[in-house]
Structure formats: structure tokens, C-alpha cells
């Protein structure tokens, strides 16, 4: 986070002027489209509305795409026999993404650990390129959704985690703080510095009051301190099968989850060559764990929904030292069967430790 000398203030009326001066990257922001709020490139700055509700889909698609080509290949004859010529997709465009909710920013910080930490396996070049091409501006969240519970899982509605700049809307403008090296450099760049003043004194007090008020607005709370221990003792608890009977196995909860990161790699062949691409996958589908020999270690929906909860609250804690649910509440709000993550956590909390 920036020290006080590097926290900026931008007047409300100067927002479009500031953004209008950013010519080297595409500006993406929450946009109302066919009755749904979604991240889209901003075509007209006058229509920018930073008071729209949180987009239904998290911005993870800008970094880890739902479908992404890895390379094209073309069959070729060579002196030594047949071969193939590979072409990689062009570099991703530079973007500035505005209005990212701090829960979704925090999920990006988790995705960074999955895709960028070499000691966990492999640095993903496509994710890395997209992440480096983007400036993520998180917006301190003063309008939580009905199922938000970020503060119960270590988050905060004004958290800077995973973002480059934290923007706090105030009564007459915006306080902007560089929260990464890239963000600080950007805020001090020639495109921005003319319009901004240093935020000090009363402005910082107002920011702190807003952040405290945002914290108080988070509507749902659940105790999660002992969830991992409870899960460790309840892998075979009949609760998981009961939950599985309610679940449709549609995968919406995982596709809309900002921290879910599973994918499958597929090849598509044409007469002259083909392409390799990756697509999002989900542990809620039967095929996800289907072995070539026919065995499936998670044949029931109960096994699969159990995996989703264990992944968020135990497996990623073991592997990365962090709960990977950011409490955005999307899975609860958008599950067609109203299966609710907070209720699951409450039920797990009531389980006996070590009961099966
Ligand atoms: S969204 Fe609901 S019904 Fe669909 S897989 Fe997830 S828990 Fe099951
Ligand atoms: S598990 Fe549900 S509440 Fe947690 S981050 Fe994913 S979608 Fe949000």
C-alpha cells in the first residue's frame, strides 16, 4: 500500500478527463448489458457508471480465459519426414480494469499463486502475459450483495490484495492508492499526475471512515476458524451425500467462482493441422475424475460437492496456507438449488470433530 505521500485524490468531475488521457490501454469497467452487469471495454466514457452493482461474473476471465487457444499447428513435410509448424496467439492487449470488487481482487491474488508460483509447479505463460498487461483498479465496496461474507474468510470490502490501485469513492471524488509497484508507477505516470493532488489529513480520515462503514455493511457472517479441523474429521459424514441429493451437478458454482481455476486441454484436428486450446473445467462434473479404465473416485454428486468445500477450506490451506473462498457469495446467489456456502459452513461448524 502507498504511504501517505503517494495517495492521490481525483475530483469526481475529473474522472473522465483522467481516463480520457489514458491512450495506451483499453479501459474495461462494469457495464449494463441486456439487464446484466458485466465487465466490458468502455466505448464512451460519458456512459461510465461506477455505481453499478458488482458484475455477475468475476473479472477472472480477463486473465484465465474460459476458452483460450494455446497454439495452432499446420502439418508440414520435412526432409526427415512429417512434422508440424506451430503458431502461438498474439500477445494480449494492455488493459485498465476498473471497478473490481476487493473480493475478486483477492481471488486474483490466489490465482497468482496457482499460476505464477514456480515452487508449486509451473509458471503459466498465458496467465502471466495477461496479468502483466493489466492494471487492476479495485473499488472499495460500499454496496455488498445479499450473500457476501468476505470478512468471515479473512477478506475486507476495501482490501487492496491482488489489485494495483485501490480506489475509494468519497463525497466529492476518489482516493487512489497504488497497491503494487505497477500501480504506483501508473498513478505517478504522465497520464495521471496533472489531475491529481496528494490526499492528506481530512481526506484520509474520510477514507478510513468509509472503509470502516464498508466493513459494517457486509451482510453475512460465519465462524470459519475451526472449519479445516472439522473437515478433517468428517470426510465420510453422511451430510455430504444429503447435500449431493440436492445438487444438480450443473457446475455454475465453480464457473462463477472467482478463485476456481481448473481447466482441461483439448485438441481440434482439421485436414491441414489443428489447434490446441484450454477450457474451464469443474470438479462438479462426473467426467472430471473419470479414469481411462472406467473407475471414478467421485462417482456421486455428494463426493463432488464435498470436494468443492474441501478444496476451498482445507486443500488450498494445506498447499498455499490460505482459504481460497473469498466470500463473494456468488455460488450461493446463483445456484439453481439455492445451495448456500454460508449454511454449509454453519453445518460443518456444528459437526463433531472426528465424527464420521
Ligand atoms: S450450482 Fe448448485 S446445483 Fe449446480 S453444481 Fe453447484 S451446488 Fe450443485
Ligand atoms: S466458493 Fe462461493 S463464496 Fe467462495 S469465492 Fe467461490 S463463489 Fe465466492
Helix content: 25-40%
SS field, number of helical segments: 11
Q: How many angstroms separate the termini?
A: 45 Å
Strand content: 15-25%
Highlighted features:
30% helix, 12 strands, eight-stranded mixed β-sheet, 11 helices, binds iron/sulfur cluster
Structure description:
The chain is of the alpha+beta class and 356 residues long. The protein has two domains: 4-217, no CATH class; 227-349, no CATH class. The chain is 30% helix and 22% strand. The chain is built from eleven helices and twelve strands. It has helices at 15-20, 102-116, 125-132, 181-187, 201-217, 227-232, 239-246, 252-255, 301-320, 330-334, 341-350; strands at residues 7-11, 26-33, 36-41, 67-78, 81-87, 95-100, 134-139, 165-169, 173-178, 197-198, 263-269, 273-280. Strands 3-2-6-7-8-9-1-10 form an eight-stranded mixed β-sheet. A four-stranded antiparallel β-sheet has the order 5-4-12-11, with no helix packed on it. The mean pLDDT is 94. The protein binds iron/sulfur cluster (2 copies). One iron/sulfur cluster (SF4) binds at residues 256-259, 312, 325-331, 341. The site of one iron/sulfur cluster (SF4) has 13 residues, from helix 8.
